Amino acid sequence: MLRLMKVLMLVSGLSCLVLIRSDALVHAGNGALIMDNPAGIGARLPRLAPLADGSTLLSWIEDDEEGHVLKYAVYEQGHWIRQGVVARGQNWFINWADFPSVAVIDETFWVAHWLVRTPGGRSYDYDIQLAFSRDAGQTWSEPQTPHRDNVAAEHGFVSIFPVEGGAGIIWLDGRAYKQSQPGKFALRYTQLNDNGVLGPEVVIDDDTCTCCWTAAVATSSGPVAAWRGRRAGQIRDHYTARMIGGRWTPPTRLGGEGWSIDGCPVNGPALAAKDDQVAAAWYTAQGNRPRIRVAFSSDAGQHFSRAIDVDSDKPIGRVSLAWLDQQAVLVAWLTAVDREHQQSQLAIRKLTTDGLAGPVIPLVPVSAGRGTGIPQLVRNRAGLILAWTESTPVYRIRTMQLTSGILD
C-alpha cells in the first residue's frame, strides 16, 4: 500500500518533475514512467500498435489550418525515433469513440483509416477512408472507401488486422438503418491486399449496436472479431466470430449477461491475442450493475471461459488489455466517477488465466467526460505502454511506460 501511495502521489504531481531528456520524464513510481511524446498541444484520440521488432506505433489527430491531420510516431528503446503524416484534410468526422487508426500488418505493410463526412449528409452520415503504405509509413496511397454502397449513412468503428494476403477490415455499417424497422446496423468485413485491391463485402452480423467500437486480433489460427450485438428485446450483449478458411463463423455470444438497454451505451470490447490464446474484456450494466468483465480462450476464440469481474464498483468502462505472459493479462479502464471532482481514475489490474486477480491499481486521475477518450494499452519490448487524452485545460496526449515493477 505504501508503494501504491507513492506511485499515486508522484503521478499526480508531475508538474513538479524535472525533464531529464527530450523523450521521457523521471519515474513516477516503481514501474511507471510518464513519457513525453511528439503529439502537439491540442492532439487527441491516440491509438497504439505493436511492431514486430518490439517497438510501438502511436497515432493521433491534430488540428491544422486545412482541418485535421492524422500523424504517427514510432517509439523504440526509450526514444521516439521517427514520425510522419498519413493524411490531412477538411470535413473529417472527429468523435471521441469513433476515431482514426494506423494498423501494422507486417514490417512494411501498414493500413490507416479516418472518417469523412458525407457531402450533403446529416450529422452522423460519414464514410471510411483507407490508405496503405508498403514502406512502413514513409509514403501513403490515395484513399479509398471499403464500403461501396453509396448510401448517406454512418460507416465507422473500424478495426484493421492482419489476414492471409493482406489486411482485414471490419466496421459498423448503417446503410440499412433508414429502411428497416427497427433501424438496423450490421458488422461488415472486407479485405485489402498489399496492392490496394479490395475484396467483396461480407456481413458478419446483420443486427448490431450502433455506436460501440469493435475489436479484432490475429491468432495463430486466424482472426477473431468482437462487437456489441443487438437482439430481440434490445439485448445488447457482446459477440465474437472467427475467420476459418476465409469465411466467418456465425456470431457466438460472449458473456451472455442479457443486458437490455434501449440505446447504445457507447462502450465497446477489447481483445488481445498471444499465439492461440485470446483475452476478451468488455463492459456491461445488466441488472443495473455496471462492471468490467474478462474471459479467456485457449483455442483461438472458439470457446471462452466463464467471465471474471475485474471491477464491479460502477466503473465507466472503456476497457483495454494486453498479455503480460502466457498466463496473465493486464487490464486498463476508467473507474467509477468521483462526483465531487467529476473525475475518474485510469486503473490497471493483473488477471491470470486461472482467474486469480491482483489489486486494482489507480494510476492517474482523468476527466470522467468523453474528452478522455478510450485508453490504449499495448505491450512492447520494455513492458507496456498506456496512452490517453488529457482533456483539460487543453487537449493533449499522455503516454506512460509500465514495467513489471508496478505489479510487484
Question: What attributes does this structure have?
Answer:
mainly beta, 408 residues, four-stranded antiparallel β-sheet, five-stranded antiparallel β-sheet, Sialidase_sf, single chain, disordered N terminus, Neuraminidase, globular, 1 helix, BNR repeat-like domain-containing protein
Description:
The protein has 408 residues and is mainly beta. The chain has a domain of 268 residues: Neuraminidase. The protein contains one helix and 30 strands. Strands 15, 16, 17, 18 and 19 form a five-stranded antiparallel beta sheet that branches. A four-stranded antiparallel beta sheet has the order 3-30-29-28, with no helix packed on it. β25 and β26 form a beta hairpin. The chain is globular and about 50 Å long. It starts with a helix and ends in a 6-residue tail after the last strand. The N terminus is likely disordered.
Briefly note the CATH topology name of one domain: Neuraminidase
Oligomeric organization of the protein chains: single chain
Low-pLDDT ranges: 1-28
Number of strands: 30
Overall 3D shape = globular
* Major sheet characteristics: 5 strands, antiparallel
Strand content: over 45%
Tally of alpha and pi helices: 1
What Rg do the Cα atoms give?
Answer: 20 Å
**What is the CATH level 1 assignment of one domain?**
Mainly Beta
Share of helix, binned:
under 10%
The CATH architecture classification of one domain is: 6 Propeller
How far is it from the N-terminal to the C-terminal residue, by CA?
A: 11 Å
Overall pLDDT, averaged? 92
Task: Provide the structure class.
Answer: mainly beta
Organism: Nitrosomonas halophila
Protein name: BNR repeat-like domain-containing protein
